[in-house]
Design goal:
Residues 2-231 form the ABC transporter domain. This protein is an alpha/beta fold and 312 residues long. Helix content is 37%, strand content 27%. The strands form 3 sheets. It has a 6-stranded mixed sheet with strand order 6-7-8-3-9-10, sandwiched between helices. It has a 4-stranded antiparallel sheet with strand order 2-1-4-5. It has a 4-stranded antiparallel sheet with strand order 12-13-11-14, with helices on one face. Bound molecules: adenosine-5'-triphosphate. Adenosine-5'-triphosphate (ATP) binds at residues 11, 14, 16, 34, 36-42.
């Protein structure tokens, strides 16, 4: 389990992280979402003991990160932003070095090394210097060192950054496979990643925690939540056919792709009425979809509102 209590980092007059408090339990994959410079990495660095907070505190598995740093660090694995720094080492040498630092020995050490090398598919590059690896392999070596001691808490700063779509998929599967009994915190800009791996999302902007919810709860804040969108041969004609449905608040036709979206009045369900109105007027529709909500739109509205407030 991890907790932060009013965790704050100031650089002179500038507040990079502003009183962030949350608790995360095993089984949670918590996504830190936020625009560039939001304070995600700084929060992670304070959680992992790499940066001292100006005020507030963080605990990992009950250990205060500042007062009991060794116990806290033992319980966590950390993938920092970017790549591992020991570029002249090979992945084999680097992982051996980390295994020694983590105090792994004997059969367990071999089992853990084999496990992470296999999971991250590093077999083919074990003896090549890290400097000469592709960005994706560097990232995978970084991930391997983070999970080598099978920690209870994993803090992963943009774990899929620099990976190609197949590798992204593999790393997301790896995170899902490890999620059951660990607390995993990942930072990301990629909203589809939140869908793919997170069961909870914290939105940070301007150093402040602005939302803490499940991805579905965030989507429910979208104006697209429970909207019905469709592609029709003649969208204007479809719009006219839907005009009399009392529970529709508004209808928009996208000027780019000509897709029609009908937005329900608060709390209303309109899918059945839309289908009925279209079929009774025999309007051809190639595709019709009930929307869950759009995370990108919710993300924009939360973080832009903070920017406006921050400037005021
Ligand atoms: N050592 C420092 N001195 C002054 N300002 C800093 C320092 N380190 C970070 N900052 C500032 O703190 C803010 C938060 O940075 P941070 O790296 O935590 O953001 P982030 O959310 O991780 O961004 P990104 O998504 O771009 O990685 C930024 O405005 C950054 O410029």
């Amino acid at each position: 389990m991890i907790t932060t209590t009013a965790l704050t980092k100031r650089y002179g007059d500038f507040t990079a992280v502003d009183q962030i408090s949350f608790t995360a339990e095993p089984g949670q994959v918590l996504g830190f979402l936020g625009p560039n410079g939001a304070g995600k990495s700084t929060t992670m660095k304070m959680l992992t003991g790499f940066l001292a907070p100006t005020s507030g505190r963080a605990t990992v598995c009950g250990f205060d990160v500042e007062e009991q740093p060794l116990q806290a660090k033992k319980a966590l694995g950390y993938l920092p932003e970017g790549a591992p720094s020991y570029g002249e080492m090979t992945p084999r040498g680097f992982l051996d070095f980390i295994a020694a630092l983590r105090g792994l020995s004997g059969a367990y050490r071999k089992q853990r090394l084999d496990d992470v090398i296999g999971r991250l598919q590093l077999e083919g590059v074990l003896d090549q210097s890290i400097d000469t690896l592709s960005k994706g392999f560097k990232r995978r070596v970084g991930l391997a060192q983070a999970i080598l001691h099978d920690p209870k808490v994993l803090i992963l700063d943009e774990p899929t950054d620099g990976l190609d779509p197949n590798q992204k998929h593999q790393v997301r599967e790896l995170i899902n496979a490890m999620a059951k009994d660990k607390v995993i915190v990942i930072s990301t800009h990629i909203l589809e990643e939140v869908h793919a791996v997170c069961n909870r999302a914290i939105v940070i902007a301007g150093g402040k925690l602005l939302a803490d919810a499940t991805p579905a709860e965030l989507e429910a804040r979208s104006r697209y939540h429970r909207a019905v969108s469709l592609t029709a041969e003649n969208p204007e004609q479809a719009k006219t056919a839907l005009a009399d449905i009392a529970d529709i608040a508004s209808i928009e036709i996208d000027p780019q792709d000509r897709r029609l979206t009908a937005f329900p009045k608060p709390g209303k369900a309109i899918l059945a009425a839309v289908s009925e109105a279209l079929s009774s007027r025999q309007i051809a529709v190639s595709e019709l979809q009930l929307e869950a909500g759009r995370l990108d739109e919710v993300f924009r509205s939360i973080t832009l509102a903070q920017q406006v407030e921050g400037r005021a």
